[in-house]
Specification:
By secondary structure, the protein is α/β, with parallel strands linked by helices. It has one domain: TIM Barrel. It has 10 helices and 11 strands. Strands 1, 2, 3, 10 and 11 form a 5-stranded parallel beta sheet that branches. A 4-stranded mixed beta sheet has the order 4-5-7-6, covered by helices on one side. Helix 4 runs parallel beside helix 5.
Length: 283
């Protein structure tokens, strides 16, 4: 897992969780997986907008992609790789790891890795769990990922949160089960851990604060500051799921109309690379 000669490691690693607006965990109580094919897909167009945005700002990224999406838009998968980005796995259908047995998880990650590799022709080294759901309840998860052939995971968000996270978990990348776990970015601020990783935190915070937290994370962590967002976050015109719980709607729809412009300024503020590059895993 040592860095390839001649390849510098980015301090800031950009990642995209490729899933559609109706597939998010926060809406799972009102949108069943069996109904997904009844929705018009927006993830392909939104992800292509991300690709264009990254081209315009000279940024490279890792795209953690659902196998379900890949099967329905294989051209998108090939486009991600053709534009120089890393293709990685987000599991098949966004089922949390802690909602699967060990055998079910092995089947899921093996199937998804094969789908992505068969479509793209590229090796899939990375994995990100739905809802950052690798933790104390899934002690076998990294063994399974290593068995399936993954080199790293970016599946932990080490903060206190009502749905995920462990505020005592490592903040920097660490080796486990012969692979690497690379947490998304957090910083210690006034005695507490604060997310610098993107997503809803990024949409809620002032841009200056987000940039300051990312800068602090890059200097404090023994590894890259990993940032993430979703294609639906730059899609303010997405259909509203009004029957969803109020808390979920607030989190999901907050500042969608400002996200793309804010993201563009963040892309300009730092030099962004792929996670495999930042971890020294790209050949």
């Amino acid at each position: 897992m040592s860095a390839a000669a001649g390849i510098s490691r980015p301090s800031f690693a950009l990642s995209v969780d490729v899933e559609d607006y109706f597939q998010v965990w926060a809406f799972s109580s009102v949108v069943s997986r069996s109904s997904w094919d009844g929705f018009s897909l927006r993830v392909g167009d939104n992800t292509r907008r991300c690709l264009d945005l990254f081209d315009n700002h000279n940024a490279k990224a890792t795209f953690f992609t659902l196998g379900w999406v890949a099967e329905r838009d294989p051209d998108l998968i090939r486009d991600i790789v053709a534009r120089g980005h890393e293709l990685a796995s987000h599991g098949f259908d966004h089922t949390k790891v802690n909602e699967q047995t060990r055998d079910e998880f092995l089947a899921d990650v093996t199937k998804t890795k094969a789908i992505l590799e068969d479509i793209s022709g590229a090796e899939v080294k990375g994995y990100r769990a739905a809802g950052f759901s690798i933790g104390k309840a899934t002690p076998w998860a990294h063994d399974v990922l290593a068995e399936a052939g993954h080199c790293y995971s970016s599946s932990t968000h080490p903060i206190a949160h009502d749905h995920y996270g462990d505020a005592k978990a490592p903040q920097s990348p660490y080796e486990i089960a012969g692979m690497l776990e690379a947490p998304v970015a957090t910083v210690n601020l006034f005695g507490k851990r604060v997310s610098a990783a993107g997503g809803g935190w990024f949409r809620a915070a002032p841009l200056a604060l987000s940039k300051a937290l990312l800068t602090k994370a890059a200097s404090a962590l023994d590894g890259p500051a990993i940032f993430y967002f979703h294609p639906w976050e730059i899609d303010p015109d997405q259909p509203r799921l009004n029957r969803a719980p109020l808390k979920s709607k607030i989190r999901h729809y907050l500042n969608l109309n400002r996200m793309e412009a804010k993201l563009a300024k963040t892309l300009d503020a730092f030099s962004w690379g792929r996670i495999d590059e930042a971890l020294g895993l790209r050949q």
